Amino acid sequence: MIIRQLYPEQYNLLCRYLAQQGHSGPLDASYEVSMKVDDYEYRLRLQPGTKRKIAILQAVRSWTEQGEQHFQLITDNLPLSCLLELLLLERKSAEQHKKTFRQHG
User: Nearest 5 degrees, angle CA 88-CA 9-CA 57?
Assistant: First the structure.
């Protein structure tokens, strides 16, 4: 698990995304979101906190090989940190694309 304090615009963007696209159960403080990277799908478990902090609790990598589904639990800090950075970049890019489309659409 890692905890990162984000810039205000990053935190607000990520919290909006989690509220709209994240999956969470009743009485659950964390959200699960999916992200594709190459041939892998990652399910990230994120928990927003106070003072613009985000915790990434774990990730599960899944892939299909020779018709068989495989899963790997990721709890090491370095891959979790990289996945959080990728998610933040993906959300920022999607937001910029949305703004550009509205301006020129």
Answer: 45
